[in-house]
Structure to design on (83 residues):
């Protein structure tokens, strides 16, 4: 997948899928995605994006990732990205 295809997928498919999860609205306080920008004179980044997911507490973090919905959606997202 090209970098531009990745950014397009990440912005237009992955983020909406993530934010559509009811538990995201319940537990996630902030969701930030930063896509890299190559700059002359700097090494090429070893990654394409950084995603930050903020929670009110570690308890909420664990509750969120323990839900059946997020477990199934994460497996689906991983399968889509690896194909």
């Amino acid at each position: 997948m090209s970098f531009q295809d990745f950014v397009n997928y990440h912005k237009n498919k992955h983020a909406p899928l993530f934010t559509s999860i009811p538990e995201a609205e319940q537990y996630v306080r902030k969701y930030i995605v930063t896509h890299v920008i190559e700059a002359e004179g700097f090494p090429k980044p070893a990654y394409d994006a950084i995603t930050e997911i903020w929670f009110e507490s570690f308890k909420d973090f664990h509750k969120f990732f323990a839900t059946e919905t997020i477990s199934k959606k994460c497996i689906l997202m991983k399968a889509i990205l690896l194909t």
Remarks:
- The chain has a mean pLDDT of 85.
